[in-house]
User: Fold these one by one.
Assistant:
Number 1:
Amino acid sequence: MGEQLGKKGATLPRIFTTNWFRKGDDGKFVWPGFGENMRVLKWMIDRIEGKASGTEHMAGVTPSYADLHWEGLDFSTAQFDAVASIDNQAWREELGLHQALFDTLAHNLPKALVDTKAAWAAKL
């Protein structure tokens, strides 16, 4: 659908995803809480406006620690890395779980989804 809209000159929305609920080894949430989400949302808006950078990874772009504003919050680089890191083995396992669904939907599955899954697997 995005490709078709793009050909018609439509401005496509930017898509962002977050995982505010990642837990550390201690079983507690790593992200400091709901009230701190604006730090990441600000980065998203800055990305849309071309004012912020990030780090490329298998699924897109992630802000680096330096890309976010930390004023008033004691949140270390190590804590941020625990939130933003990509666990390649966990993603390999996740993509393996997706295969059964892809097999079930194969008759109507858009090739772009198959290609995206293969590209992610190759990056891992």
Number 2:
Amino acid sequence: MKGMAFFRRWRYALFVSLILLTGYLIMLQPRWILNRLMARSPEAYYAIHTEQKIIALTIDDGPDPRSTDLILDTLNKYNAKATFFVLIERIQGNGPVIDRMIAEGHELGNHLLQDTPSIQHPELEFRDRLATAHHQLSTYADIRWFRPGSGWYNQEMIRSLERYDYRLALGSIYPFDSHIPSTWFASRYLVWRAHPGGIIVLHDFGARGIRTVETLAYSLPRLVEKGYRIVTLSELLEVAAVEGD
């Protein structure tokens, strides 16, 4: 009996240790994990190497008439630019806010039609959704970037992206704002995890969008104080390309 009790305690301790380790790896996102991901997945941009203190800001799932204009107001206040990965189902009736994004120097990215995991769509269905989103977004601007819903992708999706010369954007500074409804945590996480060439991932729409306004209002001035410039994905890539020449 003592042996069984010891085994149960040992198994429980191991389980708790694995949970804590997993939480550490997810929440802290150590740089070595990022480097490993980038090395194993060169087709995806988790971050972009640069020596300059610039960071790309990306915002998913909009637009939303209640929050997107507030986000744009906050970005303007701190001369920050962003790549907005918008959903086609949320564009209808929100054309003016899309026009405002473009007029103020932000860029659009393809995030497909609805807020669903992209990897769940069979290959032909994914191609159709990608094409539909591309053609609608192209009426506003040239589209260079794609981000899969929920962040998962496969090689079939990569082949479909090549048809439109898309680049696949993920991220290296993600405060889990879609799961942790704390602007206190998200805003301080962004400042803490900032690094040259990083890609921030935040979300718009509904309560998430309002939280993003608060998160940016706290983090942007502090990032600026640290010497960072907040730019679109395309500008970050262009700066890094010039460095590499």
Number 3:
Amino acid sequence: MRSLKPLAFVKISKAAPPPPEADNERVVELFNDRAALKKNYAALQQECNELRDRVKQQEGATRRFQEYLETLEGRLTRAETAYPALAFHHLRDLWRFGGEQLQQFSAELQQQQRNRKTKPGVSLPANSDLKARQRAEAALRAAEAVCADALLGLAEAERALAELDKPWHALKRKEAQARVGGRRDALRKAEQALEAARSDCEVSQATPRSAADLPDPGGELSVAAKRAVNLAVIAYAEVLCLKLSKSDLLSQARRAISRREVVDDYGDVASCERLMQMVDRARDALGNRNAMSVQVKSRTDRLRKLARYASQSDCIPLQDSIAVTAGDALGDDALGASASRLPNVLAEDTWGIFGALLR
């Protein structure tokens, strides 16, 4: 009988009560906290590594800038190297000055567009006129989209034709030429439809402005208003280019702004002085906005007729659609400018124009 007592004790010890429910929940919380701590620790480590990389990059940039300053100080100690450095920075400043003029002009136009909504005494047209205006604008946007698609289709067909340049491509080349011809016809019809839609839209715009063209209460401009601002800014950039058409200051300023180091491409001291004087006169000409109002308006009207957009929501026109064509020049003989000397300000980002355009 005594031999059975140990067995009974073992059975009693195995039948110990399970841990309470609160202890299980606490263990689960501890595991969750541990996982969250590990995740936060990994995120902090990654942030520290990124900050170290940024510090290294900033140290490298600071070191390069310090070296540039030391080199510039060395150049300024000698007249034969100081004057080219001054001319170089004059040209860079001219480019920046043109960009500042564009941004200021764009800001003023945006404010004018917003003021039109809050101007007292402006009455909205009747419902019929408003609907007619909306229909005309919808038709114009649809025509612009069709024209853009036709232009892209023609470019694709011409690219496919250019790839068929082998003798054994004779049959395929004929088919590709036929496709190109069809695409050109489609583009011509699309452009005619676009011109008709533009005419209808201009007629509808003769009525008082509707709420569709005004900014919403949050201050955001409509697509039509943004396009109007952008076209005026592009026209202003073209007029700035034409103001410098009698000299090569624009091309020199473009080369200077694209370089980091000073170059000795400006001649001797006398040549550098003449160049700096030309830059000063050019700044005065570019800053005289009152003398450009008529030219800007004429070029804005031209752009309004030519500009095409990739989609109905795009506010910046396609670069090819505003390219300068032969015979296009301002009616100011004093400028002495020809169309061939006027750059495509969008394609070449002249004056850093994309910083002044609305999207």
